[in-house]
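Late entry, iron/sulfur cluster complex.
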Amino acid sequence: MMGDVNLLNFDRDGMTSWFETLGERPFRARQVMRWIHRRGAAEFGQMSDIARSLREKLARGACVRAAPVLRSGASPDGTRKWLLDVGQGEAVEAVYIPEPDRATLCISTQAGCAVNCRFCATGMQGFSRNLTTAQIIGQLWMAERELRPRADGQPTNVGHAGPESATRAISNVVLMGMGEPLQNYDAVLPALRLMLDDDAYGLSRRRVTVSTSGMVPMIDRLARDCPVALAVSLHAPNDALRSELVPMNRKYPLPELLAACVRYLRHAPRDFITFEYIMLAGVNDSDRHARELIKRVGDISCKFNLIPFNPFPGSDLRRSDAQRVRDFAGILTEGGIVTTVRRTRGEDIDAACGQLAGAVRDRTDVAARRASIPLVPAVSTAA
Ligand code: SAH
Ligand code: SF4
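Prediction complete; structure with ligand written out below:
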């Protein structure tokens, strides 16, 4: 019998306090953390260097439980997607994007989103619920278990704990899936701390990115509590247009948002902020918009990432064509701003980050319909 306390909800401090309530010392908490997060263990019976009496005590009171995988899909370019059951009929997605020099996991923080950006399929569904820390860090825990090579070359996805020295499958994490991470701050913060903790995932701050639509007070809190790399979804060079695209802007307009970016830079692990800019044909993609952007960001140290809009059913917006995106990027570059264009990956499995569409309500039908490669029901990958 497994107990009810889900240990995936605890960062180091949480785990230590909970062990204290059991009358156990902090180093035991650390040992268990390493088993769970470094080796992917889900069963206390596997934790061979822990006394049997403690293992039994843990098994009575606790469990290690990530959101169950409903379906998963893989694209020929190596991109993988999982659809995860977060309870009460809601599902979210995690996407794995391998590249030659890194492998990124894009994770979700909420089912739906209350910000309601006009170009976003998640926003159009409205807000459903916040994920728990276990459901957030569980995406990384599950993906590592599925993807990390085992010492004997077998995948780890059959519930085996891998050796501690096993190479990690994922080098970067971006909170760019469904939801606004800074509107679920209390659950996101322990998950971020676990990503950075050497007894868990040990990622450097530069390799963990929070993407936000611009919740100014929470940007300041993140700077104090856990300054990871920051991406800000800008999408427009002026308040009139931005308020139309990103309703959050009415509460925290551009002057306040950009001032928060400048403050963040004093704490940030990278010496720039990434500005995400979705390219919408005839809306925000003219030469004039590009020139206005250069003036607007002034001397803030930043990079631009232009994101070609991913259309979805029910949206009247269109993607800027490739030449327009190149010309827009050219103007920013000439203005002295490092600019990249996001390649769309895994479109055949509907896996472009931030485009985790349709997975919430009516999820199985929508996901199956929208995926042109079949998503196969999962063979019990998460505990
Ligand atoms: N809520 C956060 C993080 C999740 S959205 C945020 O808004 O930053 C992650 C990124 O995907 C954002 O930059 C968002 O603007 C972008 N995005 C949303 N819908 C998209 C779409 N239909 N096509 C392309 N990018 C989209
Ligand atoms: Fe929410 Fe981000 Fe989508 Fe806007 S773009 S609705 S903030 S998930």
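Residues 119-121, 176, 180, 211-213, 233, 276, 278, 307, 309-310, 312, 353-355 surround S-adenosyl-L-homocysteine (ligand 1) (CB under 6 Å). Will revisit in the morning.
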